[in-house]
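Contributing new complexes? Match this layout with 1-O-phosphono-alpha-D-glucopyranose.
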Amino acid sequence: MQRKVTKAIFPVAGMGTRFLPATKSVPKEIMTLVDRPLIQYAIDEAREAGIKEFIFVTSRGKSALEDYFDHAPQLEQTLREKGKTKLLEELERSNMESGSIAYIRQHKALGLGHAVACASRLMADEPFAVILPDDVIAGEVGCLKQMVDAYADTGGCMVAAMEVPHDKASSYGVLDVKEDMGSLVSVKGMVEKPAPGTAPSNLAVIGRYILTPQILKNLASQQSGAGGEIQLTDAIATEVAKDAGVYGYRFQGQRYDCGSKAGFLQATVAFGLARDDLQDELSNYLEELIASRRAAQ
Ligand code: G1P
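Output block (do not edit by hand):
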């Protein structure tokens, strides 16, 4: 029986330069997919998986993100008075339990591994999750919940995994598979952003992790790796080398790379089409748009 995973780290210190000028004043994680900020999707997924403590690794300019998690009693009161029950419910659903969130600053942008290591003091001797909110994953069961369920049998470290086109592998952490058991694979190697043509496979790491406390120890003494940054992948690879049990989990669901403009737009369309209140209008519009573009060609 594994210890329960109840803490999650959300590395949200990135500057979001790909979304400038918007990210001059709006943290990337507050940008909305339909009507909910990116971070809300990550929180909902974490809650579904049983996470009770949420640790944000932030940086300068992220105060809107911290404010987002404040309760809004005046707004709630106004909605109540106006009988706007649905909106009120939606708002209350985003409320976090007092004391369940901690913020910690990453003072220097030294990489994902460094961001996770910044949260070390808040962690106990127990497994924890890491969620990268840029990777939005739509599925019947949340990706992290699927992983937590699988982890109950495996223990060790687990990363979400997905096949990507071979020519895209160098944008990811990539797994070298020891044994392929279907949704679960055991790992014999891991490499962060391999040079083109050198990736051990096209099975990429996606931004969901369940990690042992040993990872934090590894990070504490770790040298910088790909791109001159302290890489989380390298800290996990150290466990692979020790044969400590590292698994990839091929989740069920559609992943959107909301760290890229194209991915963000695709997610916006897909989430809009999945909404009862929007799908008719949106799909009619898209059909008309495509038809008129074809006619113009
Ligand atoms: C990070 C990780 C990488 C992983 C990716 C998934 O990279 O370092 O291993 O494959 O997230 O989105 P980043 O996209 O931050 O460069």
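Reviewers usually confirm one structural detail per submission. For this one: The mean pLDDT is 94.
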